Amino acid sequence: MEIKRKVLAYITKDEHVERKILVFEHKNHPEAGLQVPGGTIEEDEMLIDALYREIEEETGIRREQLQLNGKVHKENYFPENQKDVIHERNIFHLTFIGGEETEWDTIVNSTGKDNGMIFHCRWVPVNDLPTLAASQDEAIDFIS
Questions:
Q1: Torsion of CA 131, 132, 135, 141, to 10 degrees
Q2: Cα separations in angstroms, 10 against 29, 33, 93, 111, 116
Q3: Model-wide pTM > 0.90
Q4: Among 25, 13, 11, 89, which Cα is nearest to 55's?
Q5: Which helix (DSSP H) or strand (DSSP E) does residue 66 occupy?
Q6: How many helices, marked H, and strands, marked E, lie in the chain?
Q7: 3-class secondary structure, 45
Q8: Tens digit of pLDDT for each residue in 47-58?
Q9: Least C-beta-crowded within 10 Å: which of 16, 72, 77, 112?
Q10: Quick one: CA torsion of 38, 144, 122, 24, rounded to 10 degrees?
């Protein structure tokens, strides 16, 4: 069994009943579903560096626009299409302290398979969060 170490970012803004979470969709591949920023931790990469790298690659949000609230959960996810793989997910909660954009597109610039993809980012109320792809919303109660 292969273990792939992953990070996921629950990025929120506003508070209480107004709290929103950042999600994105693949602009040219909507079948990939609604997701939060995240991805694979590269070999010899620190967990926290992978977290900020994935956020910037997928959303364009830089480290200085975020406040780290902490790691909220760690879980194993078993992808349906990869029977011999376990994704070890390290889930973090961050608060967005940057500008006021409501939605935007980001072109992924990375060395990974997402390079060149266009992600449409937007804020949705946490209380109205639709189901996320690959069960990425399973730990959402840890930030409520």
A1: -70
A2: 22, 16, 5, 23, 23
A3: yes
A4: 11
A5: strand 66-77
A6: 1, 7
A7: coil
A8: 999 999 999 999
A9: 16
A10: 30
